[in-house]
Specification:
Length: about 450
């Protein structure tokens, strides 16, 4: 595409999934306020993440991308942020140790407040209301007043993102991830004795290795902290535009390190692709089972005309049972084009089901099946799965069925907290990391493929 780009050039394109506000002047005032506030992340950090993702594209690192489906403003509080950080750190430790590969941590946090919806309205208690579109847009309460898009939420989203990111950075700077402090790595409420034992053995071996390395005179800040990058779906383009800053002739979205384009907004000539082609940030693109290989190649032409590794992550979310048919044509087309992308697997969004009473859930076994089949396809085709993308939480919620606690549908009501999609809880997430680590370890050793279960 040779037309000139500007942070607002998306405005002349068709656009999906945007709220309709009653008071446009109030929206403009809110956006002007956001535009005047300081960046949440630095361009140098964004460049650093691109370098990390370039390594993942070459198979030299593995991306762990995870967090809430929809962050809520009320979760901008110490415990939920600590829990989220902790599960991401613990999973990355398991993956690093098991797979002997550096793990790039990207949180769905500090800005994941806007949601695409399949319908503009929903029926709650017999009343038809506008759909909840995330705290960035409207309130979850089932009243017409709460569901009215509120421009003030554009400003509130910035401040909640800032407070979340600030606390995450403070925790990491303050030693939250210090490998010398094993209590930071304890198993919380994992009930499975096997998993607890396996994890404790792993921590003991790491501390042993650390003691040896330091005895040998090696001191590294790398043992004391880790990098964590922020990300969210770049859905509300007016907000994203307000977060866009020019630096030495290049444009950065300084609201998050990484952003992704959702399955519902990746149309080639539409607004979202137009916006993202002009910013330096690494960009993810979700690919559902209907993604056509040609469309994906054209998306890459637009988003990464120079094929810079690390620029685009293709996140497949096909659904268990669909991977064998849908993934090979995509992988083969990209490979044949000679392009370098990070292949990531989101085994959540193709596996959402509803219980008889209408509760959204996901079966851990189907999540695992999609992951297993995706790994197998990449192995068969000689490409590399460079990362995974999960909806998860560090808390002991009951939203997905199965896993080490063997949650059933009857358990869902016990602690169903998500305002959007069901997330893996702490124990389910950690189990996922163990299984994945074992699988990646075997890949590294060139061993026969072990089952994921
Ligand atoms: C999401 O990641 O929460 C999401 C809505 O995903 P997708 O665009 O893949 O449906
Ligand atoms: Co979701």
């Amino acid at each position: 595409m040779s037309q000139p780009w500007s942070p607002g050039s998306w405005r002349s394109r068709p656009i999906q999934q945007q709220p309709r506000y009653a008071d446009e002047a109030a929206v403009e005032r809110a956006l002007a306020r956001v535009k005047g506030l300081p960046p949440l992340v630095a361009p140098g950090e964004i460049d650093a993440l691109r370098q990390q993702l370039a390594r993942a594209a070459r198979g030299e690192a593995f991306v762990l991308h995870g967090g809430d489906c929809a962050e809520r403003f009320v979760d901008c509080a110490p415990e939920p942020i600590e829990a989220k950080l902790k599960i991401l750190l613990q999973m990355s430790l398991v993956l690093t140790w098991g797979a002997r590969i550096p793990v790039v941590r990207v949180g769905r946090l500090a800005g994941q407040y806007a949601k695409p919806r399949s319908s503009d309205t929903e029926v709650v208690g017999g009343v038809t209301l506008p759909s909840y579109r995330g705290d960035h847009v409207n309130g979850i309460e089932p009243t017409a007043a709460a569901r009215e898009p509120d421009p003030e939420r554009l400003v509130a989203a910035y401040f909640h993102s800032a407070a979340t990111l600030n606390y995450a950075r403070a925790l990491l700077d303050g030693g939250f991830a210090d490998l010398h402090k094993p209590h930071h790595w304890n198993l919380g409420f994992v009930r499975s004795a096997t998993h607890r034992a396996e994890y404790e053995a792993l921590v003991a071996r790491i501390l042993d290795a650390l003691a040896f390395v330091e005895l040998a005179g090696v001191r590294s800040a790398a043992f004391e902290t880790v990098d964590l990058y922020s990300s969210h779906e770049g859905l509300l383009l007016a907000y994203e535009e307000a977060q866009t800053t020019e630096r030495d002739g290049r444009y950065y979205n300084t609201g998050a390190h990484m952003l992704w384009i959702g399955e519902r907004t990746r149309e080639l000539d539409h607004a979202h692709v137009e916006y993202f082609r002009g910013v330096e940030n690494p960009v993810g693109v979700k690919l559902g089972p209907t993604a056509a290989p040609d469309d994906v190649l054209r998306l890459l032409d637009v988003l990464a005309p120079d094929d810079a590794p690390g620029r685009v992550t293709l996140i497949t979310r096909l659904g268990a049972g669909r991977v064998d048919a849908a993934l090979p044509p995509l992988v083969e087309a990209v490979r044949a084009s000679g392009r370098t992308v990070v292949w990531s697997c989101d085994p959540m969004h193709g596996n959402t089901t509803k219980t008889a009473d209408g509760t959204k859930t996901r079966e851990v076994d189907r999540v695992l099946a999609e992951l297993r089949d995706t790994l197998a396809v990449h192995d068969r085709l000689g490409t590399t799965l460079g990362g995974v993308h999960f909806e998860l939480t560090g808390e002991d919620v009951t939203e997905c069925v199965g896993g080490p606690q063997e949650l059933g549908e009857a358990d869902l009501a016990r602690r169903y907290d998500t305002t959007c999609d069901p997330r893996l809880n702490y124990a389910q997430s950690l189990e996922m990391a163990f299984l994945l680590a074992r699988r990646l370890q075997a890949r590294r050793a060139g061993a026969a493929e072990p089952p994921l279960r």
